[in-house]
Amino acid sequence: MTPAARTQAAIDLLDAIVAAAADNGAAADTLIARYFAQRRYAGSKDRRAVRELVYAAIRLLGERPATGRAAMIALARTDPAIAATFDGSTHAPAPIASDEVAAAPGIAPAWLIERLAASGLDDAEQRALSGRAPLDVRVNTLRTTPDTVAADLSEPQPIAGLPDSFRLPAGTDLAPFAGRLEVQDAGSQAVTLAARAQPGQTVIDLCAGAGGKSLALAAAMENRGRIVAADVDRARLRRLEPRASAAGATIVEPLLLDAGREAEALADLGGAADTVLIDAPCSGTGTWRRNPEARWRLTPARIDRFVATQRHVLALGAPLVKPGGALVYIVCSLLDAEGRDQVDAFLAAHPGWQAEDLSLPLGRPHGHGVRLTPAHDGSDGFFVARLRAPC
Hints:
Shape: globular
Low-confidence stretches: none
CATH topology of the largest domain: Rossmann fold
Distance between the termini: 67 Å
Largest sheet: 9 strands, mixed
CATH superfamily of the largest domain: Vaccinia Virus protein VP39
Number of strands: 13
Number of domains: 3
Number of helices: 16
Structural class: alpha/beta
Radius of gyration: 22 Å
Strand content: 15-25%
CATH class of the largest domain: Alpha Beta
């Protein structure tokens, strides 16, 4: 592909990504994979170059652009080499008209900027949300040790405070390390430590998804005890079983919940858990470095739905905690409505429950919990709180 053809391919992909964001369709990575699956002639360098153009345009724009062309024109105005590819040649985009409107650069939609600011994130914190995320991995201590696996890695950088973790160069091939390494952001690893999981305990991972935190808990518990990994999403939960098998995590029990009837499936677990971990569905504002187009998918109504869901899972989780046990609430959001405010509301509605102080390797105190941000911690953004049930 010529440089101009790569620019046109990026425009075509951005059109698809913009449409998917408006209709809550497939993620950008999925759309890119589908695009190139139908264009086998594109070599690896072409695919990489087009992908970089697409994500550079997405990161540049806070508001969802009207078209992929408007997005690429905005990027072209930051790079003369890209602007030169709008030459109208074969497979190239048409020349940019003098009065053609480009999409406006920014960090996020204006209404979201207001909410981020109201949640205590200054300009520097907001700008960091559109950076690039590093490649962090957790060593699966059920299969190996950090020293052993480090000998087989290229340039592993230890992560302060997380002795079983490394930060690796982008593009590191992890296929040879299946079962020994798990891709997991440093922030995600840090907030999982709030569970203080110990061998022999019963832990319920109430929004387990594909089980990343369940696997980390199994390692912390040395495969002794019980982890119930529950979720309403059958497709995501189905991915847990092969992951647990590869990791040697034998204490993880997947439990599929029926949305709206979750309490029925959880009834036998009432008051049984030393810890209930709730990694709640959320807006994902802390993960924009990995999923920058997620900014284009959010609306005030969608955030309201997330807030309602978070209240629902908190209400489900509380009765499962044994007297004196803990509920650990986590969101990968930096909006107070989904983090600090949810914990404040829970404590007000549940007399006798208390927030415990947290000492984590990353983050700063925020309300009754701890908040991690890309600017301060070099990780994804999270809010986590540990709540102690009355005895």
